[in-house]
C-alpha cells in the first residue's frame, strides 16, 4: 500500500443558492519519501486538494489515507509551510521553533537540542534570541521550516511557500528546502503556479484541469534531474524539454476553458 492514497475524491462547496464542484473523481498515490507538485490553471482546486490531503476539510465523496490513517487522525503527524511564515512577532526565534513541540507536549531537552541544531544546519546560528521583525523574509521562511520539521512530521504540505520572496532568495530557499527534505527523507506535496519550481523540486508533477478540478495528466521528472539541486536542474536540457511539454498542456487546458 502507498504511503498516501487518494481514492475517488469529489468535493463541492454549497451555498443556499448554488453548488460549486471544486474537485471531481480524483485518485492518485504518493510513495514514502516522494516529492509531488500540484500545478494547474487558476480555479483547478489545487489548494482545495491540499486542504483535503491535510485533513483541514473532509471531501464530499471519496477518502484520503496517510500511512493507512485518515489525515485528521490524532496519530497522523502533518507539517505545513505556507506563503506567510506566521511566526509570532512577540516570541523569540527559539520560542517560535519550539512552539509545536510545546503544544504537543513533546518538548524534551533532547528535542530542543535537536531543533536548535537544525537551526544552525540551515545557516541561522546565533539568532535564537532575536525576534521575527529582525530577520529578512527568506530567514523567516527558514525559521518556519525548522518549526515545521521540529515535530518530525510524516508528511509536509507546502502551499506556495516561496511566492512572496524575491527571485534570488526564492532560488536559494528552494535548494535549502530540497536538501533538508532529502536529508530527512520526508514526503512532501507542493502547490505552485511556477512550472520551473515544480520541475526542479519534484519527482512527479500532477497537472489539474479546472471547473471542476480534475487530474489531467501526471508527469514524471527524469531521473537525471531528480538527484540534482533545484538551481542546477534549471540549466539542463531535460528541464527545458519537460517545461515546454507541461507549458503546452497548460496552454491547451486554458484555451479549452
From TrEMBL:
Molecular function per GO: ATP binding; ATP hydrolysis activity
Q: Do you know which SMART domains this protein is assigned to?
A: AAA
Q: Domain ABC transporter: where?
A: 4-235
- Alphabetical UniProt keywords: ATP-binding, Nucleotide-binding, Transport
InterPro entries the UniProt entry points to: AAA+_ATPase, ABC_transporter-like_ATP-bd, ABC_transporter-like_CS, ABC_transporter_ATP-bind, P-loop_NTPase
The question of whether Transmembrane helix is a record keyword is answered with no
Its name, as the record gives it, is ABC transporter domain-containing protein
Q: Which organism is it from?
A: Heyndrickxia sporothermodurans
Amino acid at each position: 500500500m502507498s504511503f498516501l492514497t487518494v481514492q475517488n475524491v469529489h468535493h463541492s462547496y454549497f451555498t443556499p443558492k448554488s453548488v460549486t464542484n471544486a474537485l471531481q473523481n480524483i485518485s492518485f498515490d504518493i510513495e514514502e519519501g516522494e516529492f509531488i507538485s500540484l500545478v494547474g490553471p487558476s480555479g483547478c482546486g489545487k489548494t482545495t486538494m491540499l486542504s483535503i490531503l491535510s485533513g483541514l476539510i473532509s471531501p464530499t465523496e471519496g477518502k484520503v489515507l496517510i500511512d493507512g490513517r485518515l489525515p485528521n487522525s490524532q496519530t497522523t503527524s502533518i507539517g505545513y509551510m505556507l506563503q506567510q511564515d506566521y511566526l509570532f512577532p512577540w516570541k523569540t526565534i527559539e520560542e517560535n521553533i519550539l512552539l509545536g513541540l510545546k503544544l504537543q507536549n513533546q518538548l524534551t531537552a533532547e528535542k530542543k537540542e535537536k531543533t536548535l541544531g537544525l537551526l544552525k544546519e540551515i545557516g541561522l546560528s546565533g539568532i535564537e534570541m532575536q525576534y521575527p521583525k529582525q530577520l529578512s523574509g527568506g530567514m523567516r521562511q527558514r525559521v518556519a521550516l525548522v518549526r515545521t520539521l521540529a515535530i518530525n512530521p510524516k508528511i509536509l504540505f507546502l502551499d506556495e511557500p516561496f511566492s512572496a520572496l524575491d527571485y534570488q532568495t526564492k532560488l536559494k530557499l528552494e535548494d535549502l528546502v530540497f536538501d533538508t527534505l532529502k536529508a530527512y527523507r520526508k514526503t512532501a506535496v507542493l502547490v505552485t503556479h511556477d512550472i520551473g519550481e515544480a520541475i526542479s523540486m519534484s519527482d512527479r508533477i500532477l497537472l489539474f484541469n479546472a471547473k471542476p478540478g480534475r487530474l489531467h495528466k501526471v508527469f514524471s521528472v527524469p531521473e537525471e534531474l531528480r538527484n540534482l539541486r533545484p538551481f542546477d536542474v534549471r540549466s539542463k536540457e531535460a528541464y527545458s524539454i519537460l517545461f515546454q511539454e507541461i507549458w503546452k498542456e497548460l496552454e491547451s487546458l486554458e484555451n479549452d476553458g
